[in-house]
Specification:
Elements (H helix, E strand, L loop, with lengths): L7 H11 L16 H14 L4 E6 L5 E3 L2 E2 L6 H7 L7 E11 L2 E9 L4 H7 L4 H9 L2 E4 L15 E4 L16 H11 L8 H13 L4 H14 L7 H8 L3 H10 L5 E2 L2 H11 L3 H24 L6 H14 L4 E2 L4 E4 L20 E6 L1 E3 L2 E2 L2 E6 L6 H19 L9 H16 L9 H4 L25 E5 L2 E4 L12 E4 L2 E6 L2 E4 L8 H8 L15
Parallel strand pairs: 1-7, 5-6, 7-8
Antiparallel strand pairs: 1-4, 2-3, 4-5, 9-12, 10-11, 11-14, 12-13, 15-18, 16-17, 18-19
Helix pairs in contact: 1-13, 2-3, 9-10, 12-13, 14-15
The protein binds glycine and manganese (II) ion (2 copies).
């Protein structure tokens, strides 16, 4: 283990020169999604579009940090999935059937920001119209032509889009920035002011099923109104809910507004597609996950009680970058002692991890795909009796959850299995007196999908072949909890990334040690960072 403390930024810069080269080439072509992947994804989506429909996607907004400095741009995952294009201020238009546009049969169009030498001098190269057409294979035009682009709304039956962002600033004079593009789209499709995609979806539900399944639909609407109080003011939904007999029901159904605009269905279709990974996506996910696991190993070897949370975070992220992972998929969580009991603790502000348990939930993002791996280890290399008891209970819960990762099982099956083990274990240790108290110490779900997003979209129904999920049970006992204080400030989460296929499940993060014995053994190993000692700076 190393004995040093230093600023993480200095560490990142200096170690690039100091450590051995990683023997990978992050740019090898097979490592990147190719044009065919995105083309095939568009074809799959098109198969799901209703006849005579158009699907319109917008690039995600540029977010401002302060003054003239923006946050690092994160492309919209759906836009990237369908095109491979990663720049802002773009629109993708997909038709269910080819349309005649400017005398040509066209089934898809891309509008992108054109080249701008002055902008590119400051901010780096843009692909431009030709570059975007070349990498996507889509008929591409400058985004400045979107305003004049004629969408034949009269011949279309469905105009599909994902819910439009309401918080995009009109920050530039550019007539084709996202703010302008959204405005042009709203006016093209004659979107009423205050159009509400969720209400519109509920009107469709009422119109399609309200007459034939009144009990179910009324129950569903009441539930939605509980979650979203603004819906309680809706005249049409209330009229339907209050309709007491078949005649008034039919009248209420007929009165619900009908619109071609649909800001709901497209999101669901994209979630269904992204839930099932292709082999190319799995290759990138495997890489992101292995990089993250190796980061965990390097930190296990380097950890020392005098290190800070920030320094440990820096080592994880440095290892990711060494392997060519451009970003983290979410803000890194590195928390010692009581900080380990805060589920999404991202401050990394404890100056020394001392002899605490350190929870490290860190995921490398590689070519857009993110890992999500958590290990919890004792800063001094040896679990205490209490730390070990809690750790082994979480481990047992995770094993039970793995066994429930089967094609056809309900998405909740791993959680139910993990919760059962943790409830029984906490009862046995005397930490809870009744099974119903389990959520006090295990307050989150066990799984989510993983992919371009850390919390990737999906159906949350039965598991399908080639789905990747996390399995991440945890026990968190903050100081002051109603149990013996010997348990206080122990927080443990173990999180692995699991591929579910017809053949069973595979732990993609198994490279990172997980048993108490393997963790203690790894922590006892020397680290390449042991002799990396920087001079004091006043
Ligand atoms: N890293 C966030 C999560 O585990 O869901
Ligand atoms: Mn997770
Ligand atoms: Mn996580």
């Amino acid at each position: 283990m190393a004995a040093f403390r230093l600023c993480v930024l200095i560490l990142l810069a200096a170690l690039t020169a100091a450590t051995a080269q990683v023997r990978t080439n992050p740019d090898k072509p097979s490592d990147t999604l190719d044009k065919t992947f995105h083309q095939q994804r568009r074809e799959q989506l098109r198969k799901q579009l209703p006849p005579r429909s158009v699907a319109v996607f917008f690039a995600s907004p540029v977010r401002n940090r302060a003054n003239d400095v923006d946050y690092y741009y994160h492309p919209d995952p759906d836009f990237y999935y369908l095109t491979g294009y990663k720049e802002p201020n773009a629109v993708l238009v997909l038709f269910s059937e080819p349309q005649s546009i400017d005398g040509k049969q066209t089934k898809e169009l891309l509008f992108v920001q054109p080249n701008d030498p002055q902008y590119e001098l400051w901010n780096g190269e843009r692909l431009g119209v030709e570059g975007a057409a070349s990498i996507t294979g889509i008929a591409t035009q400058p985004n400045t032509t979107f305003a004049a682009f004629k969408l034949d709304t009269a011949s279309l039956q469905h105009i599909l889009f994902k819910e439009l962002p309401h918080d995009v600033r009109d920050a530039t004079a550019d007539q084709a920035d996202l703010y302008s593009l959204l405005g042009q789209f709203r006016s093209k499709v004659k979107m009423p002011i205050g159009f509400d995609a969720q209400r519109n979806m509920l009107y469709n539900v009422v119109r399609e099923q309200g007459a034939s399944q009144p009990e179910e639909i009324k129950g569903y609407l009441s539930q939605m109104m509980q979650y979203y109080p603004a819906l309680r003011q809706d005249r049409y939904l209330n009229d339907y809910l209050q309709s007491a007999d078949a005649r008034s029901r039919v009248k209420a159904v007929a009165a619900t507004p009908k619109s071609k605009l649909d800001g709901h269905t497209l999101g669901q279709a994209m979630a269904g597609l992204r839930e099932v990974k292709t082999e190319q996506e799995l290759q990138l996910l495997r890489k992101a996950i292995s990089i993250s696991a190796q980061g965990q190993i390097e930190v296990m070897k380097a950890m020392h009680p005098k290190m800070s949370e920030m320094e440990l975070q820096g080592i994880h992220e440095f290892v990711h970058k060494k392997y060519g992972a451009q970003h983290v998929g979410y803000p890194s969580i590195v928390g010692a002692g009581k900080n380990a009991c805060v589920l999404h603790y991202i401050e990394s502000k404890k100056p020394t991890v001392d002899s605490d348990l350190v929870l490290m939930d860190v995921g490398a993002e590689y070519k857009g795909y993110t890992a999500d791996v958590t290990r919890t280890i004792p800063a001094n290399g040896k679990f205490t009796k209490e730390q070990k008891e809690i750790y082994e209970l979480v481990y047992k819960a995770q094993e039970a959850a793995f066994a429930a990762c089967k094609v056809g099982n309900n998405f909740q099956a791993p959680h139910r299995a993990a919760e059962e083990v943790i409830a029984n274990g906490l009862l046995k240790l005397g930490i809870i007196k009744d099974r119903s108290e389990v959520q006090r110490y295990f307050p989150h779900g066990t799984s989510h999908y993983l992919g371009l997003d850390v919390h990737d979209p999906g159906s949350y129904g039965a598991f399908k072949h080639n789905t990747v999920i996390t399995v991440e049970p945890g026990i968190y006992i903050p100081g002051g909890s109603p149990c013996d204080k010997k348990w206080w400030n122990i927080g443990v989460r173990i999180e692995d990334d699991i591929l579910i296929t017809d053949k069973g499940w595979e732990n993609l993060s198994k490279l990172a040690p997980r048993t108490v014995a393997d963790l203690e053994k790894t922590m006892a190993q020397p680290s390449g960072l042991d002799n990396f000692i920087l001079p004091e700076i006043d």
